Amino acid sequence: MASEALSSITLASLPAVSQGKVRDLFSLPDGPTPRLLFVTSDRISAYDVILKNGIPSKGTILTLLSAKWFEVLSSRVPGLKHHFIHLGPPSGTVTPDEEQMLRGRSMTVRRLKIFPIEAIVRGYITGSAWSEYQKTQTIHGLPQPAGLAHCQQLPRPIYTPSTKAELGDKDINISPDEAKAIVGEKYAARIEQLALACYNAGAAYAAEHGIIIADTKFEFGLDEETDEVYLVDEVLTPDSSRFWSKADYEVGREQDSFDKQVLRNWLTENGLKGKPDVEMPPAVAEKTKARYTEVFERLAGVSLEEALKNVA
Ligand code: ATP
Ligand code: MG
């Protein structure tokens, strides 16, 4: 497996459509439906800034974990539609060298119109929700019971959307009513229903593997031809979710999460939070990679090497 991080991706064979903080999207020749090649780089962002160096294999971990989730959620959420078609590019669309570079970190997806909200679901109270609750006993403006402790499980999971900011801007927490105003009542209701169903199914699966999904962010898109709402983007990865170890969980304190915590701590301790062009030291990159790998292996039930071997 490559030990160098892959931070920038260019393909001579396919036109680039857009570049996000972590992913590069390429246009594919039209098949039965409009498609995109969704490529996940090893770039890592923290506090909304992309680090200069990446985390080797991170893009592979996020891609293979998302693929696993599309399979799990399809079987556990009745009526769920999702954008995943298959891993890798359609045959014959890229050169053999490009195919090698994309192996395990790319998927062919249905191209959809993305709703401009982030469908956040919280099962536990932490992060910005905990800060808000301490001030006003609300989460995204929704009243909550008194006496919740830090990281306590909520009486039931709640849907707490945010805006989807342009690159460089910050997402803003909004109430479900404000989300309705952005996407329209009909789609808002469907997004909320699907987000909660995907969270519940994902949380149940993760619990079987010793992992708590404290909260997560989904994105949804619309097939304008059929008017159907699809689950899109990455799904239930350590970039989009807070994962905690069930064995180490204790209510009333901060939890150690399987994500960028090592990197965030290093940035904060060194006064580099939110600064551009920061290069993380190899030890920080290694530790972060180990956290991502561990959660992948626990959830997928196979080693990363094994999972990669199974990719055609
Ligand atoms: P972050 O996830 O950190 O907020 P980001 O959203 O800017 O960053 P990436 O995750 O790097 O960007 O890029 C993925 C982009 O692809 C997102 O803008 C997402 O909305 C979009 N996307 C996901 N699935 C589809 C799809 N099926 N069709 C079209 N666009 C998609
Ligand atoms: Mg994203």
UniProtKB/TrEMBL annotation:
Keywords recorded for this protein, A-Z: ATP-binding, Ligase, Nucleotide-binding, Purine biosynthesis
Alphabetical list of Pfam families matching this protein: SAICAR_synt
Molecular functions (GO terms): ATP binding; phosphoribosylaminoimidazolesuccinocarboxamide synthase activity
Broad class of enzyme this protein falls into: ligase
Gene3D superfamilies to which the protein is assigned, alphabetical: ATP-grasp fold, B domain, Phosphorylase Kinase, domain 1
EC number of the protein: 6.3.2.6
Family: Belongs to the SAICAR synthetase family.
Protein's UniProt name: Phosphoribosylaminoimidazole-succinocarboxamide synthase
Organism: Trichocladium antarcticum
